[in-house]
Design goal:
10 helices; Arc Repressor Mutant, subunit A; 2 domains; Rossmann fold; alpha/beta
């Protein structure tokens, strides 16, 4: 029997997922979590065969939860279920250690197939995502790291490198400090760096700031 922990902040989504999985003979929803804190608490105190994780959670994002989980429980398969299209998050969550990625528009049958596959220790990707991953592998590896950033991420990088604080950047761009912190985390991940000092050094070296 595959023991499953469902993590989603919407009660109606968790209920729907439970109904789909209840129709299978080899799966049981052992527990539910509605935020990142609950996910970590339950994973530390119980055994699950698969975590079905929503990427968009209150407080810690699904991506942050995934990284924390993989540091503590590297063998727990995580299937990410998201309302975001594959091209936005799929590659990122797979790099962060997820065993698979599904959009919430996927058919119930596809969810069941994906759950079984990741429970066996395998990866699950849709045919369209498999194609995208293949294309990404062919991308020229010589491309500078900052060219992988979105326009907004690049803007935030330049402002960090010029010495602005998260609060100052948030005010300048009319965004919340939390949003800027999320951009900063994405920039660090994409560029494989650890802190602002490394980002600043890179930006100066590559003449991105004066």
């Amino acid at each position: 029997m595959i023991n499953i922990l469902i993590a989603d902040d919407h009660t109606i989504v968790r209920k729907g997922l439970k109904q789909i999985l209840a129709e299978t003979q080899d799966m049981v929803v052992a527990d539910e979590a509605s935020n990142g804190f609950e996910v970590m608490e339950k994973v530390r105190n119980n055994h699950y065969d698969v975590l079905l994780l929503d990427i968009s959670m209150p407080g810690k994002s699904g991506l942050d939860i995934l990284k924390e989980l993989k540091a503590e429980q590297p063998k727990l398969p995580v299937l990410v279920l998201s309302m975001y299209p594959e091209e936005q998050y799929a590659v990122r969550v797979l790099r962060a250690g997820a065993s698979g990625y599904l959009t919430k528009e996927s058919a119930p049958d596809e969810l069941v197939v994906a759950m079984r596959k990741v429970a066996q220790g395998k990866k699950y990707v849709s045919p369209s995502l498999a194609e995208k991953l293949a294309v990404d592998l062919e991308v020229d590896a010589s491309k500078p790291p900052h060219e992988t950033l979105s326009d907004r991420e690049y803007q935030v990088l330049c402002m960090i490198a010029s010495g602005k604080t998260v609060g100052e950047i948030a005010e300048k761009l009319s965004l919340s400090a939390k949003t800027i912190s999320t951009y900063r985390a994405r920039i660090l991940e994409k560029m494989n760096m650890k802190n602002n000092a490394e980002l600043t050094h890179y930006a100066i070296q590559n003449k991105l700031v004066d």
